[in-house]
Amino acid sequence: MNSFYITILITTYNCASYLKQAINSILYQSYENFELLIIDDGSDDNTSEIINIYKDYRIRYKKINHCGRSQALNYGLSIAKYDWISLMDADDIAHPLRLEKQISLLSGNENEICFTDAAFFKKDKLRFIIENEFGSKAIHEVLTLHGHFTNSTFLFNKNYIKKFGGYNESLKVYEDYDLWLRIKDKSEFIFVHEILQFQRIREGSLTNLNRNHLNEKFYEIQEPYYQDLKSSFSILEVDEQNQVIGWREFFYGNKNLCRYYWKKIKITKWDYKMLLAYLISFFPAAFVIQFNKLRVRLRLEYLFDKRKKFKGLDKEFRKLLKDVSR
């Protein structure tokens, strides 16, 4: 097995309620060659008290003035002890084999970027799963509309990321997606096709607040790349371009424009997802936003398909949750 020393980087802001579970899940990793670097972005809760309970020499804690996640991440990269960085959200739970599985696939090339599949949970129940199953689609195509990858499974070389300017500190949201778009052309993406991260669904989390504003920011980040889909994402066919532009408008922009672009495509080239989205686009904007936010398709997939495919995962998760809560 490859041997790398890595820095596991957690940035946290007023997340004390969940931090213990996140830290324990890292300390329970089968792979032990790491430091756990926790950047406290100016929390005013009892974050420091929780961290100071731990006496593990691998934990390094730095508290800074509140500046936002992008700056906190860049600061973490600047003081990380090791070149290889594994991100971890302060309210998530890592599977005990996550680091071991990811590191086993690295060859050590600086441009390697590794992700795993993830399950999303609320309280003690799994709600849906995101798998990195792209089939014949290229990574460039996948990144046209969403981040798709679970950022808290991101494993990368800090020197490579720094070459692209690190995280955009002018962004308060979606700094991860912005980074992936900037690095996509020169990166080698590696995926571990296993559920190795459990991501918490929280009503008060940043990505569940002010959905209109979040959609506008996502749309803005994408704008330079949508000027030329051919060069940005290697989408050559006009119908494919109209399809992608339509989906972008459906998720983040103008529903009238969504229908405008899709009407340019022969109906024989539509799939059921486009047809359903086209019908939903006539509903009030608030309904469409709520529909997208609830991840209805992913929840139904899990209930009727993936729950069977990942038989035993619920039980495994509940046991892990119990272990990391001690």
Give the topology, please.
Elements: E1 6-12, H1 16-27, E2 34-41, H2 47-52, E3 59-64, H3 69-79, E4 84-87, E5 93-94, H4 98-103, E6 112-122, E7 125-130, H5 139-142, E8 155-157, H6 158-163, H7 175-183, E9 188-200, H8 211-222, H9 229-233, H10 238-252, H11 255-262, H12 272-280, H13 285-293, H14 296-309, H15 313-324
Parallel strand pairs: 1-2, 1-4, 2-3, 6-9
Antiparallel strand pairs: 4-8, 5-9, 6-7
Low-confidence stretches: none
What's the arrangement of strands in the largest beta sheet?
3-2-1-4-8
Q: Which bin fits the share of residues in helices?
A: 40-55%
Oligomer: single chain
Radius of gyration: 20 Å
How far apart the termini lie comes to: 31 Å
For the secondary structure, the number of strands is 9
Shape: globular
Mean pLDDT: 92
Helical region count? 15
Q: Main beta sheet, described? A: 5 strands, mixed
Q: Quote the beta fraction.
A: 15-25%
The CATH homologous superfamily of the largest domain is named: Spore Coat Polysaccharide Biosynthesis Protein SpsA, Chain A
Question: Would you state the CATH class of the largest domain?
Answer: Alpha Beta
